[in-house]
Amino acid sequence: MDELKRGATQSALAMLNDLEQQEPADPQIKLDIALALRLQGNLAAALAALDAALAIDPYFFLALLSKGSVLEEMGKSRVAAQVYRNALRIAPRPENTPAAFEEPMGHARRIVEEDAREKAEYLRERLGDVRARFAHERLERVDECADIMAGTKRTYNAEPVQMHVPRLPAIPFFDRGHFPWLEQLEAETEAIREELSVLLAKGLPGFAPYVDFEPGTPENQFKELNHSDRWSSLWLWRDGKRQESAMTRCPHTAGVLEQLPLADQPGFAPTALFSALAPHTRIPPHTGSTNARLVVHLPLILPGPAGFRVGNECREWRIGEAWAFDDTIEHEAWNDSDATRVILIFDIWNPLLSAAEREMICVLLAANQEWMQQVV
Predict the structure, then answer these.
(1) Please, is 25 exposed, middle or buried when counting C-beta atoms within 10 Å of its C-beta (0-12, 13-18, 19+)?
(2) Are β-strands 281-286 and 331-335 bridged in parallel, bridged antiparallel, or unpaired?
(3) What domains appear along the chain, each with residue ranges and CATH number?
(4) CA 63/CA 47 separation, integer angstroms
């Protein structure tokens, strides 16, 4: 290393080659040989030395990072991006990353991102002729497929925290055609807003922190919002039980909900609430309890920029425009405005379940709870 620092690459190589003879299975020596060869400008030989190191240890992070750099220097940018991508998959966590790694890792990320953007554009161009022939068909799935293939987006699957129903497709936002009653709900927006405005004028009485973990519960990504009024709620239905005090405050809203096909899972659903998000507050990415249900949002108070993401799809709320989504797919929300944002939330059955499946799921949920409560 001292020889390399003073530019004596030939002398350093001689010593490293001798050392390699003594320790042929040491990948670090081969990495050092690659460095010396690269300093000499012998990129092909340096690449061969790195491949030899990776043949011994395919998860040798520094060798992968160096291989990407050599390939990039050789003008093989696409291959370099793939090697960088593999290196970043096994990179040390940020808190364990030595300072000397930060710049080359940042460079690797930029190359990977640039390659992904260029590949995404290329794939879209290749799809252009076919898209033109099917201009009137919905092609969002193929578009997302292309972006995932390119690397500009990632794959999101349903990740329920309580119960997973297999063989249900992971659909971020469901087509409105499944829910002919959405227009009925949306027509009630102004009346619901009037009730909510009374509560807003009084400082949102009855609202309490949405995140309210018991002591000792891991807070994870919700640490900043735990017991915080920055994300608060007024429950109308909670775990299948009517919240009479809230219903009394919002009788019209309660009446609207009674006309809708809410999820009916005794002890678990329906759930319905007003959700208030304070200015400049973000709800971190998370997943819901079960894909047996969907969640409906009806925006009521939108004072400024606010958005919502499910999987790879981002949407902006519009007053009185409802949607239904699978909350077991990673999702997050944000309010970048200077005032409180409020939406109405409630859950419904996943429309792809049969009546028999719904009834059996209710039995499963109850049986699971009974099992957990038994003292053995």
Answers:
(1) exposed
(2) antiparallel
(3) 2-91 (1.25.40.10), 176-373 (2.60.120.330)
(4) 10
CA angle centred on 289, ends 286 and 291, rounded to 5°: 105
DSSP class of residue 203 equals T
The CB-side HSE value for 30 (13 A sphere, CA atoms) comes to: 22
**Residue 276, SS3 per DSSP:** strand
Strands (DSSP E) along 278-329, which ranges?
281-286, 293-301, 306-310, 313-316, 323-325
For residue 219, the SS3 value is coil
Tell me: pLDDT of 375 over 80. Answer: no
Q: pTM of this prediction?
A: 0.86
Q: Measuring CA to CA, which residue among 282, 259, 281 is closest to residue 272?
A: 259
The residue to which tokens 């109405």 are assigned: 344
- How far apart are alpha carbons 323 and 151 in whole angstroms? 28
Rg (the chain; Cα; Å): 28
Q: Which amino acid appears at position 364 of this protein?
A: L
Phi–psi pair at 334, nearest 5 degrees: -150, 150
- Going 119 to 122 to 127 to 131, the CA torsion angle's sign is positive
Residue 39 neighbours by CB distance under 10 Å: 14
Eight-state DSSP code of residue 274: E
Tokens of 292: 């047996």
Q: Is the separation of the CB atoms in 197 and 204 below 8 Å? A: no
| Tokens representing residue 96 in the block | 């364990």
Structure tokens of 42?
A: 């012998």
Question: Is residue 190 classed exposed, middle or buried when 0-12, 13-18 and 19+ CB atoms within 10 A define those classes?
Answer: exposed
Q: Is 299 helix (H, G, I), strand (E, B) or coil?
A: strand
- Joined tokens for residue 137: 């068909």
- What does the pLDDT look like over 195-221, one tens digit per residue? 999 999 999 999 999 999 988 888 889
Q: Is the distance from CB of 212 to CB of 273 less than 8 angstroms?
A: no
**175 pLDDT above the threshold of 90:** yes
